[in-house]
Every structure is written in C-alpha cells, then in structure tokens.
Amino acid sequence: MSTTTATQAIDGSISLSNRLRQPERMQSDALQIAHELKDRAQGLVDALEGPTDTNRDLAILEAQANVRSSARELERLTIQPSDFLFQLSVSQQLGCTFWNHEISHQNGYDIRDLNIYNWMMYMAKETAPTVAHFVKASERWPGSEDKTETAYSLSRGTDLSFFDHINASSERANEFGTFDWASLGTAVVVDVGGGGGDASVSLAEKFADLTFVVQDLPSAIETARDLARLLPKNVAERIQFQEHDFFEPQPVVKEHAVYLLRMILHDWPDHDCVKILQQLSASMQNGSRIIIMDMVLPRPGSTSLEYEAVLRQKDLVMRQNFNAKEREREEWEVLVAKVGMGIAHVATPQGSQHSVLEVFKI
Ligand SMILES: C[S@@+](CC[C@H](N)C(=O)[O-])C[C@H]1O[C@@H](n2cnc3c(N)ncnc32)[C@H](O)[C@@H]1O
C-alpha cells in the first residue's frame, strides 16, 4: 500500500469519525476500539512515512501488529446497530487495505459518498430499531394483520400505523407548525409557485378559516386541478388554482393576504428574487406579509460537519441547476432589504431543514 493511499484512508476515517462522534454512540465498546484502531492506523501511516533508517521496518511491523490486534478485537464484538456504521466506515477505509474484511468486500460501498452515507444513516436510525423489535412484535401480536400492530409501532411506542405516525411527525407538519396560522383568522393564503398545491392542502386540512389561491405556470396548474378532484369537499372548496407567472404583477390584492413562497427563492439568483419580491411588494396591503419557507444555511462551523455537509450539498445543487443558491440569514436580510422589506421572525423547526421567515414591508 502506498503511503498516499494510507493517508487518504486515514483522512477519510478521521472526518467520518468526527461526523459520527455523536454522544449516543460514545458509550459503546465498539466505538472505543474503533478510535484505538484509528490511532493505531495513524501510527502505521507515521511508520510508513517515517525516515528510512534501520528502525523503520521494525516500527512498521509493530504498528501493523497493533492495527491487527485492534481490528480483531473489533470483529469479536457484538456491535449495536448504531455502531455498525462506524465499524463499517472504518473497515471500508482501512480494512480493505489492511485486512480482508467481509463487509467491505462484499458490499463495495464507499461511505465517503454522501448518498451512501445518508442511506446507511437512515438504515441505522430508522430501519434498525424496527428490525430489532420484530421478534417482540411477533410475540405480542402473533399473526396480526393490523397496521398498528407492527415492529415499527412497537419500536416507536405508538398506537399509530406507519404512515399515520410519519405524517404526524413529518418535517412538513413540523415546518408548518412553526408559524401561527390560526392567528390569521379568515385570511387568504396565496401559494405563489405552489406547484401541486401540497402545502395549501396540508394547511387547509388543519385551518378551516383559511382560504387558498395556488398559483403556478399553466401546466403545473392543470395537473394540480386534476389532483384536486380527489380532495374532500371541505378542503377543495377553499382552494382555488390560478395560472400566474410570479414575474408578472400579482393578481391577488387583499388586506391581510399572506404570500407563501415555499421552496421558490432558492431556485433563483438574487436579481430574479428581487423581481419576484417586487411584484409581491406592489400588491401588499394593510396586514399583508410574506412567509418564506426555505433553507437558512448555518454559518460554517456552527453545526455538526455532517449536517452542514448535507445542507451545503443542496446549495451546490442549486448552483449547478439554476445558478441559484441556498442562503445564510444575513443573505436573506440583504435580499429582502433590497425591496424595502425586513425579516420579523425566523424559526427553524426541529428536524426540518427548512426555516420559516416572516417578512414585512418596512
Ligand atoms: C421547487 S417547486 C416548489 C413548489 C411548492 N411551492 C412546494 O413547496 O412544493 C418550484 C415551483 O415554482 C414554479 N415556477 C417556476 N417558475 C415559475 C414562474 N415564473 N411563475 C410561477 N411559478 C413558477 C414551478 O412550476 C414549481 O412548481
């Protein structure tokens, strides 16, 4: 193995171990040994990169033996689901070069790939607890075909079915809960660039006094209207669909109207956002406001590396697709100030990547 390969492997494992060094995993033996393994692997790299003298070969042999010993210890452990990823990441990056580890060779995943990493985190956090409760659930409800008597519901301590539980705790439900929609009374919510109207439908189901106008380009509105035929009457009768280009003057002009921009502005560079906001500003009346639901990027280093990487990856996707971007709080402030507006409130619901920004005309 070249020293470059070794160094890359170590670098990779160091950044991964930082990403995975969450408090809930600190207690396990596996983690301790994995850290020891990492240190010992670093020792091997040092030995390999060390000065070429008579002690070098001995140092390499000794370091290699240390690595093997930690690796064997790690392999002997029964590893908890949350530790599995850590072991896998270490063995992926170190193991395949130092020893033949079954998992790394069989699966061939590169855990440095964020998608693979996210998938594995999902498996460990979401799927593993369900799997772990399968036997108990089978014992408690032998042969049950009831949607609420599952390993999933047992593992989450809920009486709800999978989908009801997901919906009750979903990011969207959470996200919408951040703003006091009920306080608007009988206002109209204009869902600007509302797509299929999903956001309006979710809100209409919860807030019976609100009415909605979902605006989008003609083809999107056509599809949305088709889908709306499936909605229950008490929801459908409060949602209108309207073809509207948000670069054109806003047709809904009403006191207390709320203009919802959900996942819109991140698709556009600043100069286009200014045009979109100017059209809304021109139509805003007494008590009107804009609710922006979009990402507010954390300042570099202010959150975990892993979380920041996920968000910044989305920032790159915006750049790659639209020459647009995700914005930090200061960037949002500068943007809305360009159209004479200010941000009254920013809230980031727990578990959501989106924030809710309440924007008023100054
Ligand atoms: C990322 S989607 C967001 C949809 C919706 N707001 C949501 O939260 O699910 C962006 C939406 O903007 C719409 N859009 C793009 N350009 C538009 C324009 N010039 N006028 C109105 N809508 C537009 C797209 O059709 C699409 O539905």
Distance between the termini: 64 Å
What is the CATH T-level topology of the largest domain? Rossmann fold
Would you tell me the overall average pLDDT?
A: 77
The count of domains is 3
- The CATH homologous superfamily of the largest domain is named Vaccinia Virus protein VP39
Give, in order, the helices and strands.
HHHHHHHHHHEHEHHEEHEEHEHEE
Helical segment count: 16
Largest sheet: 7 strands, mixed
Q: Approximately how much beta-strand content do the residues carry?
A: 5-15%
Query: For this structure, what is the CATH class of the largest domain?
Result: Alpha Beta
Give, in spatial order, the strands making up the sheet with the most strands: 3-2-1-4-5-9-8
How many beta strands in the DSSP annotation?
A: 9
Q: Which class of secondary structure composition applies to the elements?
A: alpha/beta
Question: What would the keywords be for this entry?
Answer:
single chain; 362 residues; alpha/beta; Rossmann fold; 3 domains; two-stranded parallel ribbon; 12% strand; disordered N terminus; binds S-adenosylmethionine
